[in-house]
Amino acid sequence: QRTMEYFAYAAKEDPDRAPKFLWNAKMRFGKTFASYQLAKKMGFSRILVLTFKPAVESAWREDLVSHIDFEGWQFISRPTTPGGLSTDAQYQRADKNRPIVCFGSFQDFLGTNDVGGIKTRNEWVHTTNWDLVIFDEYHFGAWRENANHTERV
Predict the structure, then answer these.
(1) 153 neighbors 48 (Cβ within 8 angstroms)
(2) Using one digit for the tens of pLDDT, what is the confidence trace for 96-141?
(3) String of b and e for 54-85 (b: at least 16 CB within 10 Å)?
(4) φ, ψ dihedrals at 80, nearest 5°
(5) What is the pTM of this model?
(6) What is the end-to-end Cα distance of the chain in Å, rounded?
(7) Residue 31 CA to chain centroid, in angstroms?
């Protein structure tokens, strides 16, 4: 509720600035599930989850696909089996009329190619207009140099 109130306040104060709100809660608090509920209540349909700890993907996937509140929502992430669809291909095939949650590592999606540009396979992440960007496990990499370039998302 506080996050929704802050987002509404921030939109009135400075509509050109994306609001930022930190959830500082202990493990097993339910931040993942609460994030999905926030997105649902606010009518967000494009959610990007960037993490410094890719091993938490299963928790993000499980909370979304196993709960009735999110029936019809789509989860996109790196392929879990050899030959699986890339995140780009999954996004292109996704039903854009239904909510989409894209999960990826901060290092991959914000990483650069050999000449310092956006990786070709991730251009769609940078050109998509995300309703909500969530930085998960932020404390694992927030102080790295790459973390200072989050304005690119």
Answers:
(1) yes
(2) 999 999 999 888 888 788 888 888 888 899 999 999 999 986 555 5
(3) bebbeebbebbeeeeebeebbbbbeeeeeeee
(4) -95, -10
(5) 0.84
(6) 25
(7) 13
